[in-house]
Every structure is written in C-alpha cells, then in structure tokens.
Amino acid sequence: MTNLAIIQPDGWPAPCGYSNAICSTGRTISLSGQIGWNPVTGEIESTDFAAQVGQALRNVVTILDRAGAGPEHLVRMTWFVTDRDKYMEARAKVGELYRAIIGRHYPAMSVVIVNALIEHGAHVEIEATAVVPQ
User: Fold this and answer.
1) Is the pTM above the cut of 0.85?
2) Which tens digit of pLDDT belongs to each residue from 63-75?
3) What CA–CA distance (Å, rounded) separates 126 from 35?
4) Which of 45, 80, 104, 133 is the most exposed place for a label (fewest CB within 10 A)?
C-alpha cells in the first residue's frame, strides 16, 4: 500500500531525476541536513563531490531506517551544494549513487547553490522529508 501520488501536470515534460510534486498522507519524518561525513567519527573522509553525496545519501537512509521508514517514503529533498561546476561534472556519478542508495524513487527536489556549509570541507548537504503510511 502506498501513501504517495506523484503529481504531473498535463502537457508538462516529465522531469529527470525528481518529481514536480508528491501528495502524501501519514506520519511525517523531517530530517536535518546530512553531509558526506562518517556519522560515527564526524570526519569527512573524502574531498570528492560524488563520494560526499553518496555518504550523505547513506546517512539519510540510515536515519529513515531508524525511524521505521525507507527511501520509498521520501517526499521532498533539498540539496545545498557549494560548487555548481563540481555538481554538474559529477551528475552522472551522482545519479548512479542515487539509484544504488535510494533506488528509482524521485521525490520533489531542489538544488541550491550556496557559498559554504558550516562543516569545513563539506561540499553537499541534503535535507529530506518522508511520510510513512499509518
């Protein structure tokens, strides 16, 4: 049983890698921004943009699991990235990592380019919202 409905306006081209909107009902889980660090040590173990994205996504999935949810329950993600060019150069690898970690579920998403993140050396921070059926 799913609690999600993807909203796709008539005549609009299908988005690639995200949904325009998702309608959902259930228990809401709001995740704070996750960066590409080892959550146990607090260390950023790679300077590689795609590697940091992969770790941030694994951190999101770990939190969802602890809350009794999975990637299929994601309804919204906001990505904050510090370098548009690095993001664009890494898009293919980021897509591979996304599908390997999250699957082929694409919530509503935004990417925001920022000057810096609080944690020194972090290139990406991902906020997420999930809704689990009750």
Assistant:
1) yes
2) 999 999 999 999 9
3) 7
4) 104
